[in-house]
Design a protein that fits this description.
Shape: globular
CATH superfamily: Response regulator
Number of domains: 1
Helix content: 40-55%
CATH topology: Rossmann fold
Strand order of the largest sheet: 2-1-3-4-5
Number of strands: 5
Distance between the termini: 22 Å
Strand content: 15-25%
Radius of gyration: 15 Å
Structural class: alpha/beta
Length: 148
Amino acid sequence: MTPSVIPAMKTTGGDRDVKVSLLLLEDDPNFADLVTSIVGEAAPEFIVESVSELREALARLERGPVDIIVTDLDVPDSHGPATVRALRQRAAGVPIIVLSGAVGFGVVDEATSEGALRYLVKGDVSIEGLVAALRVAWHTEDRTEIVT
């Protein structure tokens, strides 16, 4: 029987305590704290590590893999879809969700063309929408592993 809902977490061997590592690239410390708090309360299976510059995110990815990346497009050392491109080059196969204040079809189209799975607009996304996007990304990553 196929489940009708997206699972809250990936499980292996009956282990239901698997944690999902989430790398958050956000240069506004207040917004980063808000996202970390929201995710921690609404979806405790996600463990958030926050960085404020692309170079820090790339260095973190060099130290080891993460399960999901959530990124703003405009951070001090990178702007626009180039941010997604750099993350995609360093973390091929890792789902990337853009969470940005930049609005417009062109920006969304470019970010998804560079490899973003989802594009969420700051101020327009609900807590439920953010958590759903994270779970879809995790589920999508899981399905990719099964298929390949």
